[in-house]
């Protein structure tokens, strides 16, 4: 579990688990450092392929509870066909979670195969 701030030697950027601080660099962007503010801006304005790339990175690298600081279950479901191939080993986890929520009637989700 990351500490509040830790140094990333390759980039020299202090990473943080404070996802509410707009100037902090999220711990899960260790290989592509940008502030929370920059990340949120990119998620709002980036081209569809770049947006999917960033969402996939968040779903792969961030703790599942932290993902929802940047997106919503409805958005993940909406882009799932494009997003899921980029999730690597985490794809099964997200399929399980979204399928469980669908069974509970919380979202409308059908995994792609």
Keywords:
single chain, 113 residues, mainly alpha, 3-stranded mixed sheet, 5 helices, 3 strands, elongated, disordered N terminus
Structure description:
- It is a single chain.
- By secondary structure, this protein is mainly alpha-helical.
- It folds into two domains: 1-45, no CATH class; 48-113, no CATH class.
- The chain is 47% helix and 9% strand.
- The protein contains five helices and three strands.
- The chain has helices at 36-45, 48-61, 64-67, 73-83, 90-103; strands at residues 5-8, 13-16, 25-26.
- Strands 1-2-3 form a three-stranded mixed beta sheet, with no helix packed on it.
- Strand 1 and strand 2 (13-16) form a beta hairpin.
**Biggest β-sheet: strands ordered side by side in the sheet:** 1-2-3
The number of distinct β-strands equals 3
Low-confidence stretches: 1-10
Helix content: 40-55%
Query: How is the main sheet built?
Result: 3 strands, mixed
Strand content: 5-15%
Number of domains: 2
State the separation between the terminal residues, measured CA to CA. 32 Å
Overall pLDDT metric: 91
Helix-strand topology string: EEEHHHHH
Shape: elongated
Write down the Rg.
Answer: 15 Å
The helix count comes to 5
């Amino acid at each position: 579990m990351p500490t509040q701030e830790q140094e990333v030697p390759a980039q020299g950027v202090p990473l943080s688990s404070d996802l509410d601080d707009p100037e902090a660099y999220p711990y899960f962007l260790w290989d592509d450092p940008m502030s929370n503010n920059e990340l949120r801006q990119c998620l709002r304005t980036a081209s569809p392929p770049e947006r999917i790339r960033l969402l996939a990175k968040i779903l792969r690298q961030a703790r599942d509870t932290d993902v929802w600081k940047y997106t919503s279950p409805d958005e993940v479901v909406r882009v799932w066909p494009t997003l899921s191939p980029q999730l690597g080993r985490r794809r099964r986890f997200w399929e399980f979670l979204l399928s469980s929520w669908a069974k509970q009637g919380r979202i409308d989700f059908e995994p792609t195969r």
